Amino acid sequence: MASSKLQGLPTELIFAILDGASLRDLHAISQTCQRLHNIATTSRQFWANAADKDILPLPTGYTFDTIPVEQIFSIAARGIGWQKVTNNEPAKPRRYLPYAVEDEKVRLNLLALPGNSWYIEQRVSGSHIKRAEPGWENVAYLIPLPGDTVPNFRGSVIGGGDMNLVTSIRLPGEIFKTQRILHIMKMHFPDERQGPAEPYLKDRSQIVLPHPAFNSIIEDKIFLTATIERSCSRLLLLNRLTNIGLILNYPDQDPDSQEEPTRWVASISLNEKAQKIVVVSLNQGEGDRESGQLIEKIDLVDIPDDLFGEQELGATNTPSEAIWTNRAMTISHSFTVPEYDAKAISHLPSKLPPSAIRLTTFTFKKPENLDSDEPSQIQQFGSLYIDNDNLLVFYTHELDGADINTFSDNPYRANGVSQLLGIERKTKGEILELCFVKPGSTVKQKCRLVPPDDIPGMTGYAVEGFDTTRGRLFIKVFREGEKYIHYAVQY
Predict the structure, then answer these.
(1) What is the DSSP letter of 242?
(2) How far apart are CA 276 and CA 331, in angstroms?
(3) Are 79 and 55 in contact (CB under 8 A)?
(4) How many CB atoms lie within 10 A of CB 56?
(5) DSSP SS3 for 4
(6) Could you tell me which InterPro entries the record lists for this protein (predicted)?
(7) Which are the contacts of 290, defined by CB distance < 8 A and separation ≥ 6?
(8) What is the pLDDT of residues 369-421, one digit of tens each?
């Protein structure tokens, strides 16, 4: 629609018309007249429903809802600029920076911190938060940890520059059960536009768990995790304001049973809008113990109303350690992932009812191909929604697994930095071809990257990570007869 027609409309109607537009279109529209430019630079709602909002390269520790609104316009421009590079001619490095040298006593963790080139350097003497960015070489924050700590950091964005950094602490006498105590540090990260500065610790707390756990979700109010014990699968749900928690057991499962399990929780997520915990599990069918075949199921578990209510508003006598109570979980819906059937599964429509809530994505079970000895590399993907208590299942897209080497929705993805799959050592000058799923969409995206070619002594390189929202590549450079160096390359 011409800008002359848009600029005379009420602001609310403009937002409705632009609902679902791309960032590129919104950015272009914002520059057609002064009124639309003013709206774009002062209103969060202008950008809130962009179809590809997830490609925004947000500052460290910020969500879209907490970033200062005056920054959104320039951040959108940067995200759009990088997206133009994909599917075009090979991109050449704008700059690159060596940020670490090979050391057998050092482990670099690129995936722990959701943010702009922050990483954790783990040494025997301690773990430091650092940033792979020019001018930040001397910034190193020593993470304050108890002595017997398992260095398996995980970070999650809270907003406003804050994130929770979580690690595990061993209990005395426990060698293998390493996740019985979670150490939670609320960190604040600096405004990177203002120059080099260390993050700092705002708050710290501990959660003592009744069972070893994995795949934890930690927010200011809620803690959710799943157990990893052999006897049975459970969920642990804690109100962090009252320190009251529930051990949620499957209704068909005896918590004290010593029999071999037939269900394993693969992943969990929290959907507060739907008031559901989404649990993906692998299940052994009756008589399938010998075959080893597992059935993938998605269960929707109700969040208990009595755990989060008015009692937390006036809570003054909060116990110092969490109090846990066993309870059977309430499963409102169950969905067994089927084989893909083009005739039976509807494609995702362009518009869904406003009341529909997206719960999760999944991969359809592969049908057996009796006419071929080679397993198919094609994977079909779907999305699961809930609308007025009804489950909606849609086919979304398919990908050739042989063609994909990184996924933006990889579970190890840290706000852009994705764990790359199948990237072998490359020779000096060899162009890197990447194919990944565009963040926030089902669109396959390709890009070709020219590696740095003037690093002294360079003989080859290997890829360690790729920031899909900022166009930043993290590589390990091999040198003839010398230690390798870690580089951050910006395109």
Answers:
(1) T
(2) 9
(3) yes
(4) 22
(5) helix
(6) F-box-like_dom_sf, F-box_dom
(7) none
(8) 545 556 567 788 888 999 999 999 998 877 765 555 554 444 334 445 655 55
Residue 33: which of 53, 6, 56 has the closest Cα?
6
Structure tokens at 363: 């991969």
Q: What is the DSSP string of 181-199?
A: EEEEEEEE---GGG-----
Query: For residue 330, which phi and psi values (nearest 5 degrees)?
Result: -100, 110
The tens digit of pLDDT for each residue in 134-148 reads 999 999 999 988 766
Report the run of H or E that residue 17 belongs to, with start and end: helix 11-18
Tokens 């709206």, residue located: 39
Can you tell me whether residue 198 is helix, strand or coil? coil
CB-CB contact of 188 with 162 (8 Å): yes
Which tokens go with 289?
């113990």
* 3-class SS of residue 403: coil
| DSSP three-state, residue 6 | helix
Strand, coil or helix: what is 310? helix
What is the C-alpha to C-alpha distance for residues 32 and 35, in angstroms, rounded to an integer?
9
Amino acid at 153: F
Instruction: Specify whether the CB–CB gap between 37 and 30 falls below 8 A.
Output: yes
Spatial CB neighbours of 230, under 8 Å, sequence gap ≥ 6: 260, 261
In the structure, what pLDDT confidence band is assigned to residue 443 with cuts at 50, 70 and 90? low
Two structure tokens written together for 85: 């590079």
CA distance 119 to 111: 7
Q: Which amino acid belongs to residue 206? A: Q
Closest by Cα among 410, 464, 416 to 117: 416
| Whether the Cβ atoms of residue 407 and residue 423 lie closer than 8 Å to each other | no
Closest by CA position to 488, among listed 116, 122, 197, 121: 116
State if pTM tops 0.85.
no
* Residue closest to 126 by CA, chosen among 114, 142, 139: 142
Place of tokens 């924050």: 141
CA 402, CA 407: separation in Å to the nearest integer? 13
Q: Where are the alpha helices (DSSP H) in 44-139?
A: 45-48, 69-83
Q: Closest by alpha carbon to 233, among 270, 265, 268, 269?
A: 265
397, two tokens: 């897209």
72: pLDDT strictly greater than 50:
yes
Q: How many CA atoms lie within 13 A of 332 on its CB side?
A: 15
- Which run of H or E residues covers position 268? strand 263-271
Tokens linked to 438: 């565009």
Residue position matching structure tokens 């109607």: 13
| pLDDT class of 320 with cuts at 50, 70, 90 | confident
Does the pLDDT at position 243 exceed 50?
yes
Overall average pLDDT of the 453-481 stretch: 89
